[in-house]
Amino acid sequence: MLSKRKILDSFLYGVMAVTMTGIIAALAFIIIYIFKSQAGYLNWSFLTNAETGILPMIVTTLYVVLVSIAVSLPVGLATAIFLNEYSGNSSFIRILRLAIETLAGIPSIIYGLFGLLVFCRFLNFGQSIIAGSLTLSIMILPVIIRTTEESLKSIPDSFREGSLALGATKFQTTIHVVLPSALPGILTSVILAIGRVVGESAPVLLTVGLTKNMPRTIFESGRTLTIHLYYLTNEAVRPEDFGIAFATASVLVILVVVINTATKILTANFRKKLGDA
């Protein structure tokens, strides 16, 4: 019996090792192929020139990310706190959880149509950064709520009980004890949300637009990096168009790598500080 278990464990370990190797190989192939295909177009001038480079697209992408997170983070954080710290199992809570699950499963193009009708036309924002940001803020709410709630669930009840025993109120315990302990998970939810905002194209195309000019305010139209990449590949007629498209894709890959690396570093620092405390 023991030998059979060892054989099974070895077999499963081998399957996991092969799977992990395949994932790493696929990622390496994609990154190498993208950077090889950009054919030298990725340079400092490409990143910083507003006329021939992608500086307007970078600025538009940053605007969309910042506004989306600024709108969705307070709502998502408050919802997660309410669901984990204050709610029971009433009909309202079940409906709320069903609504969150439904939001998570809606295709992004539906969000784009909603944003086009509500924010662009009904609220008269037109195709603009603010319209796209509000649309994306609704779309990333389930990500923030789910991840934050799981982070809050991981905090031991002894933390709450100790704070309450010292005379703190429920609200004080949540703000000063639970939330600081859950900061790594909350930070992870924010980074995951940023990653999704950066990678979206359908709702951004419908609500932000295709304008290549440098946006001065969030009430102007713009073009994000993903939309610029779509436009380049869809309208490419010259060989250099594909080189520029792959250079834009390289910037997106670098941005994703930076986001994930920042997540690991910041999360590790938060956990270290909490451990030292």
Brief digest:
The chain is built from 13 helices and no strands.
Provide structural commentary.
With 277 residues, the chain is mostly helical. The protein has 13 helices and no strands.
Structural class: mainly alpha
Averaged pLDDT: 86
Order of helices and strands: HHHHHHHHHHHHH
Shape: globular
**Spans of 5+ residues with little confidence (pLDDT < 50)?**
none
Number of strands: 0
Helix amount: over 70%
Report how far the terminal alpha carbons are from each other. Answer: 47 Å
Proportion of strand residues: under 5%
Rg of Cα set: 23 Å
Sheet with most strands: none
Number of helices: 13
Outline the secondary-structure elements.
Blueprint: H1 2-37, H2 44-48, H3 55-86, H4 91-105, H5 108-122, H6 129-139, H7 141-153, H8 157-165, H9 170-181, H10 183-199, H11 202-207, H12 225-234, H13 239-276
Helix pairs in contact: 1-13, 3-6, 3-7, 3-10, 4-7, 5-6, 7-10, 8-9, 10-13, 12-13
